[in-house]
């Protein structure tokens, strides 16, 4: 049995490959436009560096961040402790690098959760707004239960409409 290249099965994989190629081309064009502006390129480079440091933080940090060494308390920066130590003898560089990684993970998770919550609330608001057959009062009856965009994640404090 032979399969022609003109069949729908053979062209199905080509469409996906073309779509992927187009998306990579668009992304490359976007990155190219951003790289032409020097301030954007510098800012993007700093963010890229921080992301790399956050990913490899456990291997970059030379000391454990919570281990106390009271004999080395408040030492100035030197070859062993690049940023010095605090009043408990903990290495400041290690604490900074590992805190950056912790912050990046929590921030990324929060942005993803907040974005999903806002998108769901926006879709539900739009759905309720489109139900115009129940009248204007019915459209606004349940909107106060939804968090407003920009209000953050959490329980909406409004208990009833008009307050």
From TrEMBL:
InterPro entries: BP-dependent_transpt_permease, OppC_N. The gene is ddpC_2. It comes from Kluyvera cryocrescens (Kluyvera citrophila). It is a multi-pass membrane protein. This is Probable D,D-dipeptide transport system permease protein ddpC. It comes from the Bacteria. The chain crosses the membrane at residues 39-61. One of its GO terms (cellular component) is plasma membrane. It is found in: Cell membrane.
């Amino acid at each position: 049995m032979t399969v022609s290249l003109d069949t729908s099965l053979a062209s199905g994989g080509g469409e996906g490959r073309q779509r992927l190629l187009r998306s990579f081309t668009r992304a490359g064009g976007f990155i190219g436009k951003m790289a032409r502006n020097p301030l954007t390129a510098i800012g993007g480079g700093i963010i890229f560096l921080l992301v790399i440091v956050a990913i490899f933080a456990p291997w970059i940090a030379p000391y454990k961040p919570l281990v106390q060494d009271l004999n080395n308390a408040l030492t100035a920066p030197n070859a062993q402790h690049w940023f010095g130590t605090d009043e408990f003898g903990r290495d400041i560089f290690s604490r900074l690098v590992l805190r950056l990684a912790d912050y990046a993970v929590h921030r990324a998770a929060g942005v993803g959760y907040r974005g999903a919550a806002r998108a769901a609330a926006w879709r539900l608001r739009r759905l309720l707004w489109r139900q115009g057959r129940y009248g204007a009062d019915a459209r606004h009856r349940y909107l106060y239960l939804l968090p407003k965009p920009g209000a953050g994640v959490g329980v909406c404090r409004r208990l009833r409409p008009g307050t």
